[in-house]
Protein 1
Amino acid sequence: MTTIPVTVVGAGIIGETHADAVLRHTRLRVAAVVDPDAAARDALAARVADAGHPAPERFADLAGGALVPGGLVTVCTPTGLHVEVAERALEAGAHVLVEKPLDTAPRIARRLADRADAFAARGLVASVVSQHRFDPASVAVAAAARAGGLGRLTSAVASVPWWRAQSYYDSAEWRGTWRLDGGGALMNQGVHTVDLLLWLLGTPVTVSAFTARLAHEGIEVEDVAVAVLRFASGALATLHATTAGHPGIGVRLQVHGTAGSAVIHDDQLEFLNATAGPAPVERAADAVPAGELRGAAKPDDSFVQGHLRQYDDVVAAIDGGRPPGVGLHDGLLAVATVYAVYASAALGRPVAFDDVLRGALDDVVEVTR
Ligand SMILES: NC(=O)c1ccc[n+]([C@@H]2O[C@H](COP(=O)([O-])OP(=O)(O)OC[C@H]3O[C@@H](n4cnc5c(N)ncnc54)[C@H](O)[C@@H]3O)[C@@H](O)[C@H]2O)c1
């Protein structure tokens, strides 16, 4: 089988992870690197060559051959450029894997998600990074929930209790801005967990939230967000995300139902008891390999492995002509949920998720910018 040429757009921190994952994938090769910052694109190209692979072409922008029909474009720019880059790639006939979050606000994310069916009809795969959906712990919990093993899902508790020093926000101009980061602890760091919550519990109906900026200077966005969500199923959830929790501890997601409960801690399975359905699970150890249980030592390359798993899914979608595991609409729902938190905090009242999705609250957060 031929390899699929990959263009990495954005040669920063996560661009490096993507290149590393692509280099390890037998069906993919890094064909091109795009970044207006010459030092960044040269460094990433050198990393590929140093690993013993052909040096990729280097481009300052998307013009001049960076986008190849049938190739895969991976969008690793600051968040506020994701949709713009992905649109151009898809319009040029390339498949796309966009880093999370899909973009900074539902207004912009919707622009791409609304065209998802049209892109799919042209045989193009468009996926949004949410690598933790592919973690064995997440897969085991989702499988148990989908098989009815947890019974009726009744509630969830999600917490992203992290620490980011001021130097993190000072490290690049786009960090901590509404225009290019789209939000703070919840949009940037917490969106992974928001996506998992929606994947397991479905679509929110009502969101009520507070946000605050308590531990950082010179940023426009929140470093603490807390929210309660009511889902269409009736299930309730609490959501907490912060970059102001020194020293930072593991992300935790608890899901509870009438026939079982599950806990994922720091991407590993802590607890799973699913008593209903065709394949009941008594213990976490029955559902995942020992290395995926809470407390097991993680391999040094566990972060790249997450992206590699998502690349496996994207390649299978391209080869099999099937939708990817995480589509543009999923990306929109996660961004819209984060935005609903911001809108509720700004308005000082609960907001209807449907109002966010259909654009009725599009101007609320901009008012605070
Ligand atoms: N999936 C994850 O776990 C994960 C982790 C970290 C970051 N991210 C996401 O990846 C994105 C980038 O984050 P980062 O930490 O790598 O940022 P970064 O600042 O390290 O890198 C961004 C790069 O994009 C380049 N760039 C800017 N404008 C560009 C343009 N028009 N075309 C091409 N390149 C351009 C910059 O020069 C820079 O090299 C963000 O959206 C972030 O949310 C995802």
Protein 2
Amino acid sequence: MNDEFDEKNFLEVCTELEKLDETFLIKGVPEEYKEVWVPNNEIKLWQIPRTSAEVLKAFALSNKSKVILELGTSAGYSGIWLASAARQSGGKVYTIELATPKIEMARKSFEKARLGNYIEQLEGKISEVLSKWDKQVDFVFLDADKPNYLGYIRQFEPFLRVGSIIVADNASDFGHLMKDYLDYVSKSPNYYSFLLNIDHGLMVSIRL
Ligand SMILES: C[S@@+](CC[C@H](N)C(=O)[O-])C[C@H]1O[C@@H](n2cnc3c(N)ncnc32)[C@H](O)[C@@H]1O
């Protein structure tokens, strides 16, 4: 298999995943989601739109991110965009997901996009994976169970450096579920934060 990165192939994989996002649906909530917040009792891919993906890539490139942490892999759409930044900055993406079918889908997406060398998949509940985290982080993308964002930042905060960037998705459409997180990053003197009001709303925070 040809594993050399190719922009045209990458964009074809993006388009394929964007189409899949429109149809993928599991009705009901599988056992592994017990204790995890799920909107409307159904499982979708819940991918970010391409505009948000391009913004993520731009931010990760802007601070030459070497270690990129993603909370919520799904089928790997945002992951391939982040990995394309990691490829250019000589870094790696670490992405966390608990749903077995999605972990497998993401593995295939990373292979198809020829970015498997720039991504490590971490399987399990985010809080449990983060409890064993030990690397300095340059960029974090939060895109999982919204009510737990504040708990997650508390876990990875010790590993941020001055200039690390955190982007939290759904700050507009599900802002009410992460109010504690939004208040925290807005009021803390340790961050410069602003709401980028595109797509689902990206809350961007720079560690000062
Ligand atoms: C919004 S989707 C991620 C979409 C992905 N970032 C993208 O744009 O392609 C959120 C994902 O987080 C996973 N998730 C939610 N809560 C989780 C938790 N506590 N631990 C691990 N994964 C979780 C869900 O299974 C789901 O696939």
